[in-house]
Amino acid sequence: MNSDFKYEQAWRQISHGQLPSAIELLKELLANDPNSAMYHGTLAYCLLQQMRVHAAEYELKIALQLEPNQPFLHSIYARIYFLQNKPKQALAACDQALQLDPENVDVFELKSDILLANKKFKEAFFYIQKMAELNPDSIKTAYSFANYYFQIGDNNKAMEFTISALGMDAQHLGTNVLMGRLQLIQGNITEAEYHARLAIMLNPSSREALALFADVKARNNIFLGIWWKFNAKVSRMKPLNQVAVLIFAYVFFNLLSNIVFDFGYTKSSSVIDYAWLAIVIYSWVAIPIYQRMLSKEIQQFSFRSDY
Predict the structure, then answer these.
(1) Is the pLDDT assigned to residue 159 strictly greater than 90?
(2) What span, in angstroms and rounded, lies between the C-alpha atoms of 215 and 181?
(3) Tell me: the pLDDT tens digits for 89-124?
(4) Which pTM value belongs to this model?
(5) Which residue, among 25, 11, 12, 23, has the nearest Cα to 48 in the 3D structure?
(6) Distance from C-alpha of 56 to C-alpha of 65, rounded to nearest angstrom
(7) For the chain, where are the E strands, in sequence order?
(8) How many CA atoms does the CB half-sphere of 10 hold within 13 Å?
(9) What gap in Å lies between CA 100 and CA 49, rounded to an integer?
């Protein structure tokens, strides 16, 4: 089996979520050609998909020493910075990749994802439109539009593009996660769980897939269900709007309590005060319970630290 065929096979396995097999192939390729920047870079990409960030960064540094002007390698660094919650560095790495390849659709997609995650919707839409200009019939373009509309709260448009993307590739990881979230919002628990399980099957180390599965469990949980519905709506708002909602809720309960007290209903006023306190405590308690639930799902899947 020649090197080019093995490398193509590795990418086919990556596209189908078969990361361990792809890693083994790449290790074989590197054994024969340890100075290939693309082999090191692709291995870094695989390791990153498994959330093995330090190992991925190690491979990436080797790749960049061998070939510093390869856009693909800078895009992987952008993904690493994105996972490390360093949006400025991630965007700078994207820009570096785009300087080397101004029409790189994959980098446009990544940059739009980073901008969406930081609630910069107009800037993100700009790069999604550039994707559409260069590659209008791609699943990446359909998924990016779906994700954009989901993030801004237009669930109907998000569903339209998600269905279109699934029609192109029913085993696309991100699209299955997104469909699961849309189904969950609509209260279709069974459908949401189906897409969560499929996404985990495609990539057992995907935090997005595992988080969706944890959300399905939280939505079904008697104690967490109400908190999840509220959190699902608020978390998609801009930070300023999130603060406004919380301030409004506090002012509303405080004002209502004072009005009832002024009318002489002291017991009712106390009940309102206790109700607000109960809501606050419920929110505090629900968050660590949900985080434990998510951690439990993530810990079910472990990977060797060596490769």
Answers:
(1) yes
(2) 9
(3) 999 999 999 999 999 999 999 999 999 999 899 999
(4) 0.69
(5) 23
(6) 14
(7) none
(8) 26
(9) 24
How many residues in the chain?
Answer: 307
Biggest alpha carbon distance in the chain? 87
Measured between alpha carbons, how far is 39 from 27 in angstroms, rounded to an integer?
8
In single-letter form, the type of residue at position 119 comes to: K
CA distances (Å), 129 to each of 50, 135, 148, 269, in order? 30, 10, 11, 53
Give the lowest-confidence range in 31-35, 200-204, 260-264. Answer: 260-264
The pair of three-digit structure tokens given for residue 257, joined into one six-digit string: 């309590």
Is the alpha carbon torsion for 238, 229, 203, 56 positive or negative?
positive
Centroid of chain to Cα 105: 19
In the structure encoding, which two tokens stand for residue 175, read together?
């699209």
Burial class (CB in 10 A: 0-12, 13-18, 19+), 195: buried
Contacts of 70 (CB under 8 A, 6+ apart): 37, 38, 41, 63, 64, 100
Tell me how far apart the alpha carbons of residues 74 and 90 are, in angstroms, rounded to a whole number: 9
Joined together, the tokens standing for residue 143 give 């998924």
Q: Which residue's entry shows tokens 């990016």? A: 144
Q: Dihedral of the CA atoms 73, 149, 217, 300 (nearest 10)?
A: -10
- Crossing angle of the two packed helices 225-234 and 207-220, in degrees rounded to 10: 130
Q: How far apart are CA 63 and CA 70, in angstroms?
A: 9
